[in-house]
Amino acid sequence: MVEYDQANDEVRAIYDEIMEIRGIDFIPNVFKTLATHPPTLRRLWDGLRQVMAPGRLDPLTKEMIAIAVSATNGCEYCLWSHTAAARKLGLDDEMLGEVMAVTGMFNQTNRLANGYQIEVDEIYRKAALGPES
Amino acid sequence: MVEYDQANDEVRAIYDEIMEIRGIDFIPNVFKTLATHPPTLRRLWDGLRQVMAPGRLDPLTKEMIAIAVSATNGCEYCLWSHTAAARKLGLDDEMLGEVMAVTGMFNQTNRLANGYQIEVDEIYRKAALGPES
Amino acid sequence: MVEYDQANDEVRAIYDEIMEIRGIDFIPNVFKTLATHPPTLRRLWDGLRQVMAPGRLDPLTKEMIAIAVSATNGCEYCLWSHTAAARKLGLDDEMLGEVMAVTGMFNQTNRLANGYQIEVDEIYRKAALGPES
Amino acid sequence: MVEYDQANDEVRAIYDEIMEIRGIDFIPNVFKTLATHPPTLRRLWDGLRQVMAPGRLDPLTKEMIAIAVSATNGCEYCLWSHTAAARKLGLDDEMLGEVMAVTGMFNQTNRLANGYQIEVDEIYRKAALGPES
Amino acid sequence: MVEYDQANDEVRAIYDEIMEIRGIDFIPNVFKTLATHPPTLRRLWDGLRQVMAPGRLDPLTKEMIAIAVSATNGCEYCLWSHTAAARKLGLDDEMLGEVMAVTGMFNQTNRLANGYQIEVDEIYRKAALGPES
Amino acid sequence: MVEYDQANDEVRAIYDEIMEIRGIDFIPNVFKTLATHPPTLRRLWDGLRQVMAPGRLDPLTKEMIAIAVSATNGCEYCLWSHTAAARKLGLDDEMLGEVMAVTGMFNQTNRLANGYQIEVDEIYRKAALGPES
Fold first, then answer.
1. What are the tens digits of pLDDT across the range A34-90?
2. Pick among A91, A92, A117, A118 to test the D interface (most D CBs inside 10 A)
3. Under an 8 A CB cutoff, do F37 and D97 touch?
């Protein structure tokens, strides 16, 4: 991991950006680790800022999706960091309970659908493509 | 798959419930397949109704999480059916684009965090547990 | 895919073994594909014979575990071939229903345990290691 | 996590049920965590009881499938708890060795079948659907 | 999917870039699909160009890693497109056989290591961090 | 885990082979664990030697694929041991950064391709099969 004091100018500039934009006064371990390969740190940080910015989905909804993905993949670091971020945005135990219930349920049904190799209903295929297609 | 006409009374009652509650006039293949094992059909249908009911999260948010989970697991049936369900609740191409961008991004970062075996920041661990813990 | 007529002597000998031991008169596509890399065909076929031989677990139990793994991973080829193999060994719709119910359930609970990052009970840790440890 | 003493009546009733039915005198962490969202605790506990009850598959076979699924998904909590449960039902090192050998082997072949995008043999497709279809 | 003729100026400029840099005269379906959400198309295309450029690893090695990842995740589109790209860079059946053998083997051992919850050897932990840590 | 002193002759012979061929003076925990089921230890060790031997791909390339697979699956033991092995073969932070960047990127695009259920381009399908098909 690259500490702030050891970082070159390029990395230090990104660290400053991270702390300012996130309103925090420490560098999370994930960025200190990615800094061992500066182009990846740059690309990931820029991507995260773009993807997590408020859009048609609000930041809390995005963090709840991040929790669902991380629970599905079993990523320990990600679960702690995204749950922490979601808490800051207002997630309480009941909302987290619903995120987990939905995540657990569809991990279950995904396997039933795969396990039985269920054929897609033509009506879903059409509806999924949307009016724009 | 068990067609409506072949179904016994127990299964037919569930089929009727599904069509009524979902406001559809066909039995999706997933339920026709689960009907080969009636206790699983009963348990899954009851669970789905409970989990997907409006709660602290609205039904569209829940369907977006279902899409994120199904994309992460690569479940073809589930992707078509949940995208169809979300379309019905108002999902347009831009919202779907954001769901996919978030899902893709965190499938990426999940692997970076795992791949480098990044240690959890103590500050995230505390924040994630929430004020209730 | 390497057809029987195109196969070299090494591959043809394995094909003959497969047909004899499995009591079939065709070469499944998986072996015709692995034959594009003969050392992998040899290693996999030998491994499969060893692992699937009757042992403390009977062949049907092993095929049910194969179905559970393949459903969890979403492998289409594997699901059709292992379900076919299990049918031959006596699997009926009710047993398949139980395999799927268990597989679905634990794909669900796996994500809840990961999602909440639940700490392992010390009592389970000790019991799991068994009397031999 | 919700301790027994902090639990409301609904949760405490479920805790009592768990201890009685499982014949244990402590609440496993998974249930203390699910209790932060009581409807999920209720649904999961009821589902587990139904799915794990002796049926056409005996409880040990079900626990071995649970181990295979949890190993495939890499769920730490689940591996310790299901291996502990299976030990109680008689699983020894040799049986566990066979469960792991089968689980490992099909995680391998699943990727070979996916990686080469092997086409399903028509003969398997028919056999898998079974005589009932 | 957004066809070239329907694309707005921003998307068309990316399409032109893709065809020029890849030396192809068609737009692959993945980009026509991502074009339904232009910021994702832009971010992904820029990221792909950066990540796949020759670096310390040559492009064929990168494509082989892409095949290994896609086989592990079971992504049909990705397997066909990355295998095609690797073929163009010189991948023959024997090299593909080795990629698959390695991918299959470690999908197997990953589950054995997880399944038995094997403790990390301290000597590996130190060596993995490298001389730079 | 089976220590060297407790091992029977068959296991001890494999332990000796492992230490000699790998040029190490300890038994890694993975082998001490697999030794609880000697036929699996034998099969895995023989398979590893065959698969990891220099071939058309050099050993470092194979270890980098092992890292990519293990990061995708989130296997802690495997990540430490394969990163250690790759370090010994010359992997530095920049190369590891490229392996991770490629692994992360395709875990992202795999989900976008799955999530949108993108149809395979016919041109890729043909090119992937190679001139030999």
1. 999 999 999 999 999 999 999 999 999 999 999 999 999 999 999 999 999 999 999
2. A117
3. yes
Give me the residue from A34, A106, A120 closest to B69, CB to CB: A106
Q: Which of A59, A60, A68, A74 is nearest to A97 (CA)?
A: A68
- Distances in Å between the alpha carbon of A88 and those of A67, A84, B118, B126, C44? 14, 6, 22, 12, 51
Residue F79 CB contacts under 8 Å (≥ 6 apart), including other chains = B114, B115, B117, E128, F67, F70, F71
Q: In angstroms, what separates the C-alpha of C116 from chain A's closest C-alpha? A: 8
- Interchain contact A43–E (C-beta under 8 A): yes
Q: Exposed, middle or buried, B8 (CB in 10 Å: 0-12/13-18/19+)?
A: exposed
Q: Provide the whole-model pTM.
A: 0.97
Interface test with F, best of C42, C43, C69, C72 (most F CBs within 10 A): C43
Closest by Cα among C1, D114, C32 to C14: C32
Q: Per residue in B10-21, pLDDT tens?
A: 999 999 999 999
Q: Which residues contact E115 (CB under 8 A, 6 or more apart)?
A: D67, D70, D71, D79, D99, D100, D103, D104
Where do we find the tokens 């196969």?
A: C7
Please report residues of B whose CB lies closer than 8 A to that of D43: 47, 50-51
Mutate to test the interface with F, among E25, E65, E132 (most CBs of F within 10 A): E65
pLDDT of F100 reads: 98
pLDDT tens figures, D67-107: 999 999 999 999 999 999 999 999 999 999 999 999 999 99
- Nearest CB among D67, D80, D107 relative to E108 is that of D107
pLDDT mean over F121-126: 96
DSSP for F11-55? HHHHHHHHHHHHT-SS--HHHHHHTTSHHHHHHHHHHHHHHHSSS
Torsion sign over Cα D20, D24, D26, D32: negative
pLDDT of C35: 98
pLDDT digits 0-9 by tens, C8-22: 999 999 999 999 999
Residue E130: band (very low, low, confident or very high) from pLDDT cuts 50, 70, 90: confident
Closest C-alpha among F15, F40, F9 to residue F27: F15
| Cβ–Cβ < 8 Å for A39, E51 | no
Closest Cβ opposite residue E94 in set C37, C75, C128: C37
Question: pLDDT for D38-77, tens place per residue?
Answer: 999 999 999 999 999 999 999 999 999 999 999 999 999 9
